[in-house]
Amino acid sequence: MSCHAEPPIRVGTAPPRFALVGSPNAGKTTLFNSLTGLRAKTGNYPGVTVARYEGRHILDDDSHVTIEDLPGTYSLDPMSPDEQVVATVLEAGTSGDEPLDGLIVLLDATNLRRSLGLLAQVQQLPHPITVVLTFTDELARRGGSVDVLALSRATGVRFIPVIAGDKRGVASLSESMGDVASWPKPMLPPPTDPSGVADWATSVLDSASFRAPGSDKRTSRIDGVLLHPVWGTVIFFVTMMAFFQVIFSVAAPMQDGIETLFAWLGGVARANIPVAWLSSLVADALLAGVGGVLVFLPQIALLFLLISLLEGSGYLSRAAFLMDRVMGWAGLEGRAFVALLSSMACAIPGIMATRTLPSAKDRIATMMGAPLMTCSARLPVYVLLIGMLVPGDLRFGPLGAQGAIMFGLYLLGAISAMLSAWFFKKIIGRSGVGLPFYMEMPSYRLPRGRTIAVSVWDACKAFLKKVTSIIMLTTIILWGLLNFPLRSDADLQRAGIDSRDEVAVKAFVIDNSIAAGIGRAVSPVFEPLGFDWRINVGVLSSLAAREVFVSTLGQVAAAEDPDDPVAALTNMTHTDGAHVGEKVFTPSTVAALLVFFVYALQCMSTLGVMRRETGTWKWPVIAFVYMGGLAWLMAWLAKLVVGGMA
Amino acid sequence: MRKPIHPEAVTGEPQAIRWVVDTGDLPVGEVLHAAGTLGPMMEYGVITRMFVERGSVWTWLAPEHTWTDRGPRIRDAVVAGVDADGWDVTDGSADLLRFIADDVVHGQLFTFITSHGGQISVVDATIDAVVLDFGGACADCPAQGQTLHDRVEVTLRARYPRLREVSKLASSHSAAPRPRSPLHLLKRT
Amino acid sequence: MTLAEHLGQRQCVAAGGRAKTCSLAELGCDCPAKIIGFTSDDQISRRLFDLGFAPGQVAALVRRAPMRDPMVFNVGGSEIVLRKREASRIVVEQQ
User: Fold this and answer.
1) Helices H, strands E: what count in chain A?
2) SS3 A235
3) Where does the sequence pass through the membrane (chain A) (predicted)?
4) CB of B107 within 8 A of CB of A147?
5) Is A149 within 8 Å of B182 when comparing Cβ atoms?
6) Which fold has domain B94-186?
7) Contacts of A443 (CB under 8 A, 6+ apart)
C-alpha cells in the first residue's frame, strides 16, 4: 500500500509546492486567496472539465512557494471527476510533474468528527501534513470547544487554527511552510475502515475535550423564514427576479456606455484615417471587435459579483435546495438553476457559473443547454421581427400580442434548455452509477470582500484572456467578408452609384461582397425557411454577435429606403430564386427567423467560453452543430405551422 | 470488539507508543505478563516493555521492527487485551511515574503551565513520589506556585493513583538543562 | 493498490434486522435518530458515511423542500441535503 512509499525526492530548484486539501465549505478558497491574493492562475487539469487553481505565496524571507488549491472533496474515495483529480494528484505525489512537498489539510472545527475522517485518509499518504483548523470562532459561538494543542498531540500532526480575517493564523501557516522538515508526523497512520476510524476519531475528540457545537441559532432563525414552504419560495422568486433585474438596470447602461464610446471612437477613426478601407478596418473591425469584447464585461462582472455574494453568504445552497426538484426533471440538480438563470442575461457568465456543479457530467449538460436560454442579445432581434410580424395594438385577451409572443419565446428557450440538458445528461459518459445528489448547507456567513473581489477579477480576466482573440478574429473575418472585394470609384460609377452617397456605397459593397456570395451560395439550404440571400448575410454576420443581425439588415434596408428602414424591410421582395417578386418577410418567414434565433448558437464568444471551461473544442463544436441543426428544423416547422395558419 | 483508541508519541522514545484507551480497572504499573495476544508479543520480544496507567497502555517496540509494520496488530491486541483477564502488573513503577510526569508537564499541562509563567521540569521520581523543579516566575510567587503544584498533583494522581506526594526542588534553577519537549513546536501563536 | 482502491474496499455496515428501525427518509418528525447502518454496501453508502452519516451518530430531519423532496438533515454538527432516494439507504433507530 502507498503508506510504505516514500515521498518523491525533489531535484532541481523549483520552489516548494503545497496542495490544499479539504471538503467544500471548509474555507479552502478563502485561505487560498489569503495566501496567493491575485497571484493565482487558472487552467484545467489535463483531459477533464475540472478547473485548476495554482498560486504563488511569498514567505517572510521573500522566497516563493507554490500553492495548489485542489478541488474540494469529502473523501479520497472518489466519486466525481473532481475528486478523481484529487485522488490522482495525491497518489502520484506530484502535480504537473512537480513533487508535492507538503499537504495542508483544511478541517472545519464545527464538524470535526466528520473532518477527522478525511484527515485519517490523507494520513495514509507519505507526505508531511499540517492541518488548518477553520471556523473555530463559529465553534465557540455555537457553544462548542476544543483543545487544539491536544488535537495536535492526539493526531500527531500540527493543527493551526485560522480564522478568516485574522492574519495571525495565516502568518503561523506561512512560517511553517518555510520549514517542512520540522512538521510532526504521527507514529502510525490511523485506520481507514469505518469502525476503526470511528473509534480513532472518538478517542481523539475525547482527549481533546471536544464539545460539539449546538445548532447555529442565527442560521436556524433565518432559514425559518427563507426556507419557509410559502414565504421562502416567494422570497426566492423575488430574489431571483431582482438578481435578473439588476443585470438590466445596472449592467445595461454600462454596456450602452461602452457601445457609445466605441461608436464615437469609430467615428473618430473614420474621420481621421484617409484611406477608406483602412479606416473601415480600424473602425468597423478592430474597434468594433474590442468594443464587442468589452461590452460583455459589465454583465460578467456583475453576475459574478452577485453569484459570489449568494455563494459566500450561503444563500446559493438554499436556492439550490428549493429548485432541486424542478432541476431534477431535467436530470440536473438544484445548483444548475443559478447557471441557467444567469444565462438569461448572457450565456457566458452562465457557462462560467457551472463551476459550482460538482459533477462534470452536469456541467457539460448544463453548458449544452445554457445558450438556449433567451439571452439579452436576442432581444433586439426579437423586437425587430415581432414588430414586423405583429401590429402593436393586437391583443390576446388582456395581454398585448407582442408581449405575449415575447414571453412565449422566453418560455420556448427555457423549456428547450431543460430538454437539451436532459438529453445530454443521458448520453454523456459511460458511467453506470449516477452521482447521487448531496449538498452541505453551510451556516449563513458574511462573505469576505476579498473572496468576492478575487472571484470577479478571476472571471473577467479569464474571459478577456481566452475570448478576446476569438471575438477579434471573428469580427475581422466577418468584416473582410462583408467589405471585400473593395470597390474603386470606377466600379461605383459603372454601377451607377454616387460615390458621395455613403449609404448607397455601403449597400453596394455589401450586395456584392464575399459574404453576399456566400449568402447566395447557401440559399438552397435556407430557401425552405423562406430566407433570401440578404437574410442569409444577416445571419452570417450575427455569428459574431446576435445583435449584429439587426444592424446588418438595417444597412441593407437603409440602402433601399434610408428614411424608413422598417418599411423597407417589410416591403423587401425576393430578387432571385423561385419567389421572385414576392415579399421576403411573410409571417411564416418571420416566424421561421424568430425560431431560428431561439435555437442557433450564433455567438462566437459563447463558443470561446465553452472551450475555456471544458478545455477542449469538442463540446463547443458539438453545441454549434446540434443547435444549428435544431435551429433549421424548428424554423422549418415554424414556417409550416404559421404558413398553414395564414 | 471495538473501543475508542488512538496512539500518541512519547518524547525521547522513538520506539514507544502510548495507546490512549480506557483501561478499566487494570492495575497501574509495569507489565510482567499481558493478557491476550499481547502476551506472546512480549514473550517473543516484539514488545520489549509495557506499562499500564489509568487511561493508557505504554508499549515499546523492539528496535528491529517499525510501528508502520506492527502498529495495527498491536493496536488490535491492546483493544482486546484491556478487557481480558491474565494481566500480571507490578504495583506501581518509578519509571512509569517518571514518564507520566514528563508527559503531564511537557504535554498535557504545558499550555496551562506556560500561561502561568511557569517552566516545570521533572527532576526525579520514585514509586510513589515525584520531585519537580518549578523554574520561571512561579518559583518566586507562592500563589502561582500553589495553583500549579495542585493542578499538576491532581492530574498526576488521576493517571497514577498511587501517587503520594509531589515535591518541589529546593533551589529555583536545576543543575543540568532538561531537553525541551519538541511539543513546543505545536504551540499556538 | 492505490489509496483510492484501498478506500473503495471499505465495507459500510449493512444493517441487520432490528426492531424499531426505519430509514432516514421515513422519519416523519424532527426527533433525533441513531444511525445503525445502510441498506446496501456500495459506493453511495461509503459516500454517505464520509459525509458524516456514520453508524453510532445521531441524525435528525430539519426540514423538507416545498415539494417534499429533497430534505435537510442535521448530523455531526452540519446540515446536509439529501434526496429521498439517498436518505432511504440509511437505516436508523428512533430514540
Assistant:
1) 30, 12
2) helix
3) 225-248, 260-278, 285-309, 329-352, 364-389, 401-424, 467-486, 590-609, 621-642
4) no
5) no
6) GMP Synthetase; Chain A, domain 3 (3.30.300)
7) A110, A138, A216, A218, A219, A314
Closest C-alpha among A180, A8, A30 to residue A99: A8
Residue A304: CB atoms within 10 Å: 23
d(CA A83, CA A88): 8
The three cell numbers of residue C68 are 417534499
Q: Which residue of A has its CA nearest to B10?
A: A187
Bridge-based pairing state of the strands B129-136 and A158-162: unpaired
* Neighbors of chain C with 3 or more C-beta pairs under 8 Å: A
Q: Where are the alpha helices (DSSP H) in A371-501?
A: 378-389, 401-427, 449-483, 489-495
Name every residue whose Cβ is closer than 8 Å to that of residue A202 and which is 6 or more positions away in sequence.
B4
C-beta atoms of B3 and A199 within 8 A: yes
Alpha carbons A425 and B118: distance in angstroms, whole number: 65
Rounded Cα distance, B60 and A74, in Å:
36
CATH topology of domain B5-89: Ribosomal Protein S8; Chain: A, domain 1 (3.30.1370)
Mean pLDDT for each consecutive 10-residue tract of chain A (646 residues)?
52 84 90 85 76 90 92 90 88 79 96 96 95 95 95 96 90 93 94 94 96 91 90 87 74 83 83 79 76 77 85 88 89 87 84 82 91 85 79 68 81 92 82 74 87 84 73 76 75 73 72 82 85 83 76 66 65 68 79 92 87 87 94 92 79
Chosen for mutation from A188, A193, A197 (greatest number of chain B CBs closer than 10 Å) is A188
- Domain at A2-214: CATH architecture: 3-Layer(aba) Sandwich (3.40)
Options 2.60.40.10, 2.40.240.10, 3.40.190.10, 2.30.30.90; CATH of C3-94: 2.30.30.90
Cell of B110: 504545558
Question: Does the CA dihedral A92-A94-A100-A105 come out positive or negative?
Answer: negative
Alpha-carbon gap: A195 to the closest alpha carbon of chain B (Å): 8
| B171 vs A202 pLDDT, higher one | A202
